[in-house]
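Hi support team,

I submitted a single chain yesterday and got back a structure, but I'm not sure I'm reading the token output correctly. Could someone confirm the output below corresponds to the sequence I sent? I've pasted both exactly as they appear in my results page.

Thanks,
R.
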Amino acid sequence: MTSDPRLRLLICAAIGFAGCAAGLFIDAKTMLASYLTAWAALSAIPIGALAVLFTTYLVRAGWTRDLHVSLSGATLTIPVLAALFIPVLAGMSVIYPWAAGTADLPPFKAAYLTPWFFILRAAVYFTVWTALAVWAARSYGNDAAMKRVASAGLIVWALTASLAGVDWFESVEAHFHSSIYGLVVVSFDLLGGLAFGMVALLSSNRRQSMSNAAYAGTLLSVLLLWAYMYAMQYIIIWTGNIPEEVIWYLRRLHEGWGFALWLLIVGQFIVPFFMLLSADIRASTRALLCLAGATIALRYLEAGVLILPPLGVSNLWLILDLPAAILATGASWLFAFGFAVRLVENRTLSRMATAH
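Hi R., thanks for writing in. Yes, this is the structure output for that exact sequence:
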């Protein structure tokens, strides 16, 4: 095996896509559902990193400056994320019932959930996010420009990220609707972006500040936001007691998904919440790395819980297809992230040299 990490990533991506091609031949629906799940979990990193980056532009401190390279590098990979979404668009009629014309929807939903409009909205989301990422990268080092891009960017990001979540996740079950679903996906993205930024920073030698408590406190705040959104959705659905909405939970309590749902609740909230109450955990770089790494891994579990239960896919082939999809999308994205980080580092060094 080659010692070049970039070549290793390309080889892994090729193996993953080969596995995806084989999966398409065997069971197209399970493979495409697996690919959408893997892509959705991965998407939380660059999309969420954009919002966290804007927040660091408004909250200026040593620990926020340390996150700049990893967060900015992640946001600049959004065009690659868009390219990785093409297989989902190509196979949307297999995954989304409304795209195949098999969903009996009210007039507004039927007009909103049409293939051409779905593709158009996706193109708008990726274009807007890419423009914001480039604007943010160009603004770094200029306090006034950073405040402008962060203030405007957070508003635009919140709107587009919530709408994209409804499009890509919720519309798998076209008859289901939760008024808070977009915010659930926003918290999903924030966890992915923040956790990846922490892992990339705490495992590197770029760190200059020693404020572990700041990272721990921020992670705990986002965890509480994530738990609050899910709790509010449950309370709203339980109070309304509408069969079409209650079915959303019933589908996630059968065929092993109930175990996955409880594992997500325990692993993503209960365990890290009590761990982060400990001063020793908050001060430990290794403990924070483990928590952030587990948070990234749990994005895949959460994406599976949100997307897969209503699709009726084969659990046997899912065990083989999902790792192939994770390898294909993850290795491709990490390859692009490496280039983006070097670009950000070079630009930052150039700005520092010009300033001096």
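A quick pointer for reading it: The mean pLDDT is 90. Let us know if anything else looks off.

Best,
Support desk
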